[in-house]
Recover the amino acids of this structure.
C-alpha cells in the first residue's frame, strides 16, 4: 500500500500530530536554552547563582530533552497512522483531550522546577516537586498523569491498528509502544536502597533509549523511506523485523553496562561486556539499510533513463540520513569506546558520558524527529516535492556542527578527567577537583559553550524554517 | 575474593589514548567495510573496490585486538570481541542476501 502522506489536510489525526510537533519544538528550544545556562555556569560558576542553580538548569535541560522527544514521538505516530492503516485514528477526540492534559501537566511541572526548585526532601517532594531521578524527575502526581496519557495514546494506536490495515510498521509500533509505556512504571516507585532504586531506574532509561526508542526509530525510518523515496514496502518491513530482533537481542541485556558499579552482582560485568560489544551491530545494520534502499531506489529510477532524484522531501531526507549516520556515530562509536568494564572503570561519570549522551540523543533521536516535523510541514501544505531553503541548510549545518563541536569538546574534557582524576589520582576527592581545574578541561568547557550557542542559533533557523517553509514558492506543488 | 576481581591490571597512562582511538576506529573501519560492501552491491561503486571493503574489515579486527590487549580484557570479554568481529563480517552478507531475495520475489 503506497503512503498517501500528502493529504495532511482534513485528517484530525494529522492535525493532532502537528500540535504535538509544535509543543515538542517549543520544548526543544527550552532544552537548548537551559543547556546554555548550564554550560555558562561551567565557565562562570556565579552565573544566576541561587536564582537558577546548575542543578536546576541541568534538570530542566535533560527533562525537557526527554519530554520533547516523547511529544514528537507521539506526534509522529499520530501522523503516520492514517497513512499506514488507511483510516482515521480511532478515539481521536480522547487523543486531543489527553494532549491538552499532557501539555498542562508539563507546563505546571516546569513552573514548579523553575520557581519552587527544591522541597523538604520527604514524601512531599516526591509527590509535588520532583523525584530526583535523572531524566524522569517529574513528581508523582505528574507520573500518574503521564501514565494516563500514555495509556490513551496506546489505546488509540491499538484500536486504529486492529480496525484498519495493520501494516508491519504499525504492528512493530503497537508492540513497541506497549513496552515503552509499561517501562515507565519501573521508574515510579521509591526505595530507600540506592542500588535497588538505580537498578529499576535503568529499566526506564536504558530500555527506553537502547531498546524501545531504537526500535521506534527503525519503524519511523521505514515509514520515511517508503514515504520519501518510494522504497519497496516488503523490503523495508522485512528489514524492520530484522532490526527489531537485533536491537532487542543486544539492547535488552546491554543494560548490563549500567550495572557495573551500582552495587549489582558481578556477573553483570560479563553480561554487560558481551551485549554491549554487540550493540553497535544493529546500528551499523540500520546505516546499511538506508544506504541500500536509497541506492536501490535511485538506481531503479536512473535505469528508466530519466535522471531525477527519487527524494520528495529534501530537508526531511537530510535529517533521516543524518539519523542513520548520527545513530552509528553517537550511540555506536561514542558508546562503544567506553562501554567495556575495563575502560568504563575510568570513564564512568566523566564528561565522556556527557559527550556520548549529547551525540547519541541528537544523532539517534533528535534528527529523525526533526525529519518527521518536515514531513508534517510537507503534508499540511500539500507540497509535492519539498526542497531545501537557506534557513533549512543553515539549521542543519549549525545544529549538526554545534552538537559535533560540543561532543568533541566534552570528549577532550572527559579525557582529562580520565587521566588526571582517575588514572593518576585514583578517583580521589582531590583528583575530582584537580581534573576539573586544568587548562585543557577549562578550555574544553569554553568550546562546549561556544558550540552550544552555535546549536541554539541553528535551532532558531530551524524554527523559522518550520514556520515559514510551507508557504515558500520554491517547492513543487 | 581478590582473585575474582575483573580489574586485575591497571591500564597504563600512555595506553588510554590508543584505547580510545582504536575503539573508535573499530566502528569507523567497520562502517567503511559495510558501506563499501553495500555500495558495490547496489552498483554505486565498481566491483574491483570490493577487496578494499575486506581490508577495512581486517583493520577493524586488528583494532579490536589492539583495544582488547591494551585494556587487558579477560578471557570472556576476549571471546565476546571475537564474536562481535565475526558478527560484523557476516552482517552485510546476510543483510544483502535477505534484501536481494525479497527484491527478487517482489520484482520478478
Amino acid at each position: 500500500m503506497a503512503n498517501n502522506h500528502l493529504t495532511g489536510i482534513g485528517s484530525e489525526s494529522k492535525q493532532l500530530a502537528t500540535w504535538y510537533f509544535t509543543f515538542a519544538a517549543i520544548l526543544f528550544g527550552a532544552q537548548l536554552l537551559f543547556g546554555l545556562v548550564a554550560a555558562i555556569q561551567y565557565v562562570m560558576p556565579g552565573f544566576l547563582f541561587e536564582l537558577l542553580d546548575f542543578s536546576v538548569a541541568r534538570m530542566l535541560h535533560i527533562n525537557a530533552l526527554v519530554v520533547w522527544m516523547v511529544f514528537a514521538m507521539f506526534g509522529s505516530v499520530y501522523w503516520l497512522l492514517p497513512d499506514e492503516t488507511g483510516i482515521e485514528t480511532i478515539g481521536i477526540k480522547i487523543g486531543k483531550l489527553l494532549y491538552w492534559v499532557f501539555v498542562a501537566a508539563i507546563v505546571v511541572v516546569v513552573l514548579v522546577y523553575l520557581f519552587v526548585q527544591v522541597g523538604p526532601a520527604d514524601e512531599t517532594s516526591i509527590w509535588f516537586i520532583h523525584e530526583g531521578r535523572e531524566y524522569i524527575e517529574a513528581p508523582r502526581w505528574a507520573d500518574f498523569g503521564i501514565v494516563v496519557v500514555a495509556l490513551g495514546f496506546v489505546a488509540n494506536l491499538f484500536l486504529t491498528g486492529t480496525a484498519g490495515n495493520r501494516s508491519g510498521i504499525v504492528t512493530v509500533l503497537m508492540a513497541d509502544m506497549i513496552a515503552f509505556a509499561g517501562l515507565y512504571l519501573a521508574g515510579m516507585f521509591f526505595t530507600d536502597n540506592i542500588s535497588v532504586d538505580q537498578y529499576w531506574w535503568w529499566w526506564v532509561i536504558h530500555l527506553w533509549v537502547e531498546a524501545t526508542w531504537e526500535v521506534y526509530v527503525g519503524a519511523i525510518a521505514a515509514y520515511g523511506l517508503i514515504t520519501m523515496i518510494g522504497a519497496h514496502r516488503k523490503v523495508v518491513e522485512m528489514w524492520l523485523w530484522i532490526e527489531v530482533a537485533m536491537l532487542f537481542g543486544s539492547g535488552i541485556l546491554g543494560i548490563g553496562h549500567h550495572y557495573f558499579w551500582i552495587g549489582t552482582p558481578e556477573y553483570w560485568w560479563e553480561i554487560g561486556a558481551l551485549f554491549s560489544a554487540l550493540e553497535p551491530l544493529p546500528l551499523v545494520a540500520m546505516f546499511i539499510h538506508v544506504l541500500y534502499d536509497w541506492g536501490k531506489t535511485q538506481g531503479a529510477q536512473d535505469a528508466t533513463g530519466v535522471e531525477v532524484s527519487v527524494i520528495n522531501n529534501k530537508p526531511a531526507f537530510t535529517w533521516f540520513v543524518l539519523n542513520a549516520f548520527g545513530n552509528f556515530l553517537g550511540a555506536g562509536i561514542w558508546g562503544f569506546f567506553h562501554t567495556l568494564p575495563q575502560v568504563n572503570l575510568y570513564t564512568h561519570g566523566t564528561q565522556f558520558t556527557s559527550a556520548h549522551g549529547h551525540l547519541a540523543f541528537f544523532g539517534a533521536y533528535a534528527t529523525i524527529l526533526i525529519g518527521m516535523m518536515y514531513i508534517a510541514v510537507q503534508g499540511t501544505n500539500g507540497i509535492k516535492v519539498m526542497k531545501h531553503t537557506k534557513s533549512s541548510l543553515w539549521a542543519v549545518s549549525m545544529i549538526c556542527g554545534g552538537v559535533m563541536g560540543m561532543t568533541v569538546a566534552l570528549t577532550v574534557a572527559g579525557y582529562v578527567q580520565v587521566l588526571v582524576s582517575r588514572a593518576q589520582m585514583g578517583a580521589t576527592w582531590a583528583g575530582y577537583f584537580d581534573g576539573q581545574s586544568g587548562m585543557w578541561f577549562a578550555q574544553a568547557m569554553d568550546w562546549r559553550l561556544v558550540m552550544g550557542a552555535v546549536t541554539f542559533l541553528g535551532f532558531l533557523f530551524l524554527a523559522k524554517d518550520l514556520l515559514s517553509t510551507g508557504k515558500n514558492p520554491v517547492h513543487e506543488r | 575474593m581478590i582473585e575474582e576481581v575483573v580489574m586485575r591490571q591497571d591500564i597504563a597512562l600512555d595506553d588510554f589514548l590508543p584505547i580510545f582511538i582504536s575503539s573508535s576506529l573499530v566502528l569507523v573501519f567497520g562502517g567503511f567495510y559495510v558501506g563499501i560492501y553495500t555500495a558495490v552491491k547496489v552498483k554505486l561503486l565498481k566491483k574491483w573496490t570490493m577487496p578494499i571493503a575486506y581490508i577495512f574489515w581486517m583493520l577493524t579486527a586488528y583494532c579490536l585486538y589492539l583495544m582488547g590487549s591494551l585494556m587487558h580484557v579477560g578471557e570472556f570479554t576476549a571471546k565476546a570481541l571475537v564474536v562481535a568481529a565475526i558478527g560484523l563480517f557476516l552482517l552485510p552478507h546476510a543483510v544483502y542476501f535477505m534484501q536481494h531475495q525479497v527484491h527478487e520475489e517482489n520484482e520478478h
Q: What stands out?
A: Chain B has a mean pLDDT of 84. Chain B has one domain: 14-107.
